[in-house]
Amino acid sequence: QVQLQESGPGLLKPWATLSLTCTASGASLTAGNYYWRWLRQPPGKGLEWIGSIGSSGRTIYSPSHEMRTHIFRDTSTNRFALQLSSATPEDTAVYFCARSIRGDGLDFEVRGQGTLVSVSS
User: What is the pLDDT of residue 117?
Assistant: First the structure.
């Protein structure tokens, strides 16, 4: 059974770098033809796809976030991470990590419970 758990600071100041980690258990990040995703849901808004890293290590980013986003992984700990630079209050959202068979989009087979990140001075 695949399980995902997000972790990271819940509060950061504007212009800081938002950094989150997703720990995967029950499956290796390098196995199969999967994409490991970051999604977010701002308050009162719909789910957004931020980016993905495939089992090959290939990364894909949403054009809306590409300039500020970096997704990478540590295969020794089976974790993948999100860095979103120059955070603003508009980045306040519940952030989820998930696994999908597709590179982009909002669908997922399994998703973490999510972690709230607030950007505020």
Answer: 98
